[in-house]
Amino acid sequence: MVVENIPKMVGMIYAIIAFFILVYLFNRDKFNKKIGYLFLITSTLMGFLVFAPMFPNQLQVILLGNVKQLGAPIPIVILGLVLFVILTFAFGRIFCGYLCPIGALQEIAYIIPIKKLKIKNKTLPIVFRLIFFIAFVVLGVIFSIGILTFFGFYDLFNLNINSIFFYIFSALLLVSIFVYRPFCRFFCPYGALLSLASVKGLFKLQRNVNCVDCKKCEVICPTNEAGRTDLKQECYLCNRCKDVCPVDAIEYVRNNGEEK
Ligand code: SF4
Ligand code: SF4
Known about the structure:
- The chain is mainly alpha-helical and about 260 residues long.
- Helices cover about 55% and strands about 5% of the residues.
- The chain has a two-stranded antiparallel ribbon.
């Protein structure tokens, strides 16, 4: 379904503009569920129409040296990859949360109201993804194998129903209904980089003095990142913690490193 005539740059420009709109909305406390859905749907459509902004895939293409597949000049793509790492350091994982079509599709799947399976161990997905990242680089650089191809998101967004990989990502989406963002949390190499960038991020969701320690935010958070001292490296800014807070004690503000 991807329309080849539309330049991939459209996806990158969309991501940059949407990123700053979202930062503004979060910071001014104007973000809500409906706005979130709007961005998730738009980003998913961008995936189907333009196959962009698809940074995990572009990272692989650069690693393999298949620059013709980038659909944009290589310096611009590298600039885009680096830019979003810097933006994530400044403002958190807004790209993953709302703009990456792969992440958006999984987020939409998870919205389906059905009993969820929460992975209680916070370290496990992070360590697994780090090991996978090393495998991704080694296989790409030494053996010229693009391991992400086997996940099938290229085939899914291109509606290649004749490819076996189409069904692999479809299965992963099925899992996403029950488990929060399995591809992002266990496999995505670009997500691994963004996760590192957000550890010491400048803007984060933080509790204010209104907090009454009811722990509702911690219970609802699908990535175990809503605790008072959690680093938020796996916070996808889904806003579930903020929505569930009974005393409006969570706000997206500059991280001052102090507990309240
Ligand atoms: S973790 Fe990877 S796949 Fe998930 S949203 Fe971020 S860049 Fe996309
Ligand atoms: S519930 Fe809150 S802390 Fe957890 S991922 Fe969503 S926005 Fe981040």
